[in-house]
Amino acid sequence: MTDLASARDLDKKEALAAFLASYPHFEETRALDALRARDFARLDDQGHVYLDYTGGGLYADSQILRHMELLRTSVFGNPHSTNPTSLGTTDLVARCRRRVLAFFNASPDEYGVIFTANASHALKLIGESYPFEPGDQFLLTFDNHNSVNGIREFDRVHGAETTYIPVSPPDMRVDESVLDAQLDRGRPDGNNLFAYPAQSNFSGVQHPLEWIDRAQAKGWNVLLDAAAFVPTNRLDLSRCRPDYVALSFYKMFGYPTGVGAMIARWPALAKLHRPWFAGGTITVASVQADRHYLAAGEEAFEDGTLDYANIPAVDHGLDFLDSIGLEIINSRVKCLTGWLIDSLLALHHGNGRPLVHLYGPAETRGRGGTVTFNFFDRSGQVIDHELVEEKANRRQISLRTGCFCNPGAGEMALGLSKSELVSCFTSAEGEMTYEDFRHCIDGKSTGAVRVSVGVVSNFDDVWAFVRFARDLVED
Fold first, then answer.
1. The sheet that has 161-165: what strands, in order across it?
2. pTM for the structure as a whole
3. For labelling alongside 333, which of 58, 88, 232, 385 has CA 20 to 30 A away?
């Protein structure tokens, strides 16, 4: 071992000791280290530092082997029939629906599960089917994924009004007095839809689930984007009861990547009206009579043939999470996130300027394991996030850069004003690429660096990233 390697190893040991002293609950999560060695050995065997759990979860070897055995020993038929293989598939899909409800502690008397391609597909189903009319309201926070923002295109076609509630830097939270004022504007006896993320995919902020009851008491349907929240947090639908929940299963446990869900309360589901029909969504359709009848309940929203070969893998993934316990995952994520934020904010250039500007809470209360920031040089100029990603790639560090499909949070965090954004879009002649946008916002960053921890993250992962960040410090 070289002297430099020895020094780094010693430094790491000291850092680990300080970490354990500051976050003693980490010791209670050691079972996850054994899980990593057993079910995720490919991470360390291939030298990966995986810090993009908000982008996608990782699957365990045992999940894949269990699903492979099911496929190898079964004969699955298209469920749109009543032959033996089709009936077997139908039973498996029904069992998986029940498993999803049980995992989220949702009563089948209150909720149904619609399988979709992903969370974005679930959100599109809600947007195209919600019965917006002139004078109705669509309320959402600046902090939302583009798949939620896109619902505004549906409500505008029907004459409804879109209203955004801002988030405020540096913590990127909502002023609840502003939220209450907007909720009071809901049209009595109208169709009012309020949408927000349980956890921001930009800043990691966890917006209060208590907003659900507050909004519903004022006549709003509530759409909860749970995609970034449920991989490391318990969503108990017996305690908070949003009308619609959107999620992607690959965010939770890596595989399958083509299955998501809309979990909807039955009265809220009955309120939706599909603007078209497809195979699988109807009971009867006629060309000559020019009529059709939609299927009842969940099937009316499951266009075409379900991904029936992969849906049983959802069952396996939920069993996998239950075998670990979301509570132990949540505890580990909090410990690693807290130390990562502390360590990054402690880094300063030789002239005293901070290396990192954090976008989101600097504490673990009310936040998840998503940490977003930019690096700045000793003169106070932002270091291009694309350059940061290039440097990280060379060290086998997987992170994410850009605006993460969340432009509202990004605009607020990066200080981009409405006037300059409107000017950019006005100057575009028919189209605009991301590079065009970067050049238009002269002198300001159009994105950030995001790292996120998850189920089998360990101290070595966050240590490797902090060591990477330290190499950006200038004397």
1. 111-116, 260-265, 244-248, 221-225, 192-197, 137-141, 161-165
2. 0.94
3. 385
